[in-house]
Amino acid sequence: MRKLVIALVVIAAGSYFALQNQTLQDHLMAAVIKSRMAQDTSELFQQDALNAMVCGSTSPFPSPKRAGPCIAIFAGDKFYIVDVGSRSWNNLALRGISAEKLGGIFITHFHSDHIAELGEYNMQSWAAGRDANLKIYGGQGIENIVAGFNQAYAHDRGFRIEHHGADYLKPETAEMVAAPITQLPKVIMQDGKLTITAFAVDHDPIDPALGYRFDYGDRSLVVSGDTVKSQSLINASKDADVLFHEAQAQHMVQQLEDTAKALGRHQLAKIFFDIRDYHTSPVEAAESAAEANVKELVLYHLTPPPPNKIAEKIFMRDVEKAGANSVQLAHDGLFYSLPLNSNTIQRQTIKAP
Ligand SMILES: [Zn+2]
Ligand SMILES: [Zn+2]
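# zinc ion complex -> structure
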């Protein structure tokens, strides 16, 4: 107890001194800048492991702790992003991601929560020195979205090229390039040990709606995108190591609808009613994982995003009865490492500083 009191007094005195003394402030600032800029991200980029991080775990529902839907996959010396939910770039940047290593973006479908930060990812990776145009993969229609973002950012591109010079911000790599995917399922990228396959899911009436499977050496992970319980997703997820699956707790959404109705908020009540027919419940996602013999299921795109342990318990109600091997509820920064030539699944949280 005495030691604790002394420690608190020392911290308080140090803080007071730092608030008064400019030299100390400058030393502290220099130390923080250096540690942030020299951040070691080698644990993300490994030649002999397939890695992934949840860069956004909420749905269109707001959350103070969760960005919009986003899964980052690290394979070799590149990383790939499935969906670019709002505030997800922040999650990556805070963790020291080398933006120039962005190798492509994979859009599951064109709902706003999945395309929100397309312009930000392109600008940030371009400014960091990406050496080729950023390719945006998606179903038919991705051309319109990419063209729209490119147009919206035309002024920004011009300002930056003029200010920093065309040697640093190269005009030829400034614009995104659309890569429309047709005839599913389809292998859309093969690069050394990495194979990326797109497949159809069922988010009716939203069409196209895709999921993606990443195979790297003998390890694999799958991202569902938005879907109801879907046989094509189960087929595509066969024996995968990790499945990132969207989840909507229907019993909680029902409660939201009832409350909205009782409060006379009919517009909101109508939306809570409508969304129930094109998402997957946590129990159904666990059933899919069990049917596909997935080693670990990670629920993300959480509707509603549980804000505390009690809400998490309600969200996960009856999930363990569905027979999945292992189920996790995602949070932002949840990181998986799958070393090649093994069955090991390493799970940790990479905290934002
Ligand atoms: Zn969504
Ligand atoms: Zn959607």
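# post-check
The first strand starts at residue 49 and ends at 56.
The first helix runs from residue 2 to 20.
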